[in-house]
Amino acid sequence: MTDAEQLKEDRMIFELKCLLDIKDFKIFQDEAEKIWILDKLKKHNFNVTKTAIEIRIQRSHLYNKIIKYKIPIDRKLKYSYSNGKYMVIFNPNGDRFNFIIKNEPELTETIKSGLQFVYIRKSNLAYMAKKIFTRIENLTNVN
């Protein structure tokens, strides 16, 4: 067993022991369900749709449980696009995305100030990346 596997097993044993100390059945049920859902979400890299399919509940029910148990959706997935010189990284922000230009904070602020909006929907990421690269080219060619 690797160190990472041992650490995961130790953490699970600790969580189970904590569950066994709970005196109220409803609290025990809720905590057990929360741990189980969190484990399944981690398995699917916090993809709610895939998790809901695996645990065989509707996605809307899973969202309700995520809200109920205050499970932070750690969306480590970031979407990035590169034109060879610059990389635009879109960060999740609720149901929309914010963006940064990697290692270029001033350029990021300049681009944002020239756009009509700074929050982008997932379906428009590629389009917005192209728009941002065009704007970068225009700004860098002028300077």
Q: What attributes does this structure have?
A:
143 residues; single chain; Arc Repressor Mutant, subunit A; 58% helix; three-stranded antiparallel β-sheet; 6 helices
Give a short summary of the structure.
The protein is mainly α and 143 residues long. It is 58% helix and 12% strand.
Please tell me about this protein's structure.
There is one protein chain. This protein is mainly alpha-helical and about 140 residues long. It folds into 2 domains: about 5-70, Homeodomain-like (Arc Repressor Mutant, subunit A), CATH 1.10.10; about 80-140, no CATH class. It contains 6 helices and 3 strands. Strands 1-2-3 form a 3-stranded antiparallel sheet. The longest helix is centred in the first third of the chain and has 19 residues, at about 25-45. The protein is elongated.
In CATH, the architecture of the largest domain is Orthogonal Bundle
- Residue stretches low in confidence (pLDDT < 50, at least 5 long) are none
The total of helices stands at 6
Largest sheet data: 3 strands, antiparallel
CATH domain fold name of the largest domain: Arc Repressor Mutant, subunit A
SS-derived structural category:
mainly alpha
CATH first level of the largest domain: Mainly Alpha
Q: How many individual β-strands?
A: 3
| Envelope shape | elongated
What is the gyration radius calculated from CA atoms? Answer: 21 Å
The named CATH superfamily of the largest domain = Homeodomain-like
Strand content: 5-15%
Strand line-up in the sheet with most strands: 1-2-3
Q: Estimate the helix proportion, in percent.
A: 55-70%
The H-and-E topology, N to C, reads as HHHHEEEHH
- In whole angstroms, the N-to-C terminal distance is 57 Å
Q: Can you give the mean pLDDT?
A: 80
Q: What count of structural domains? A: 2
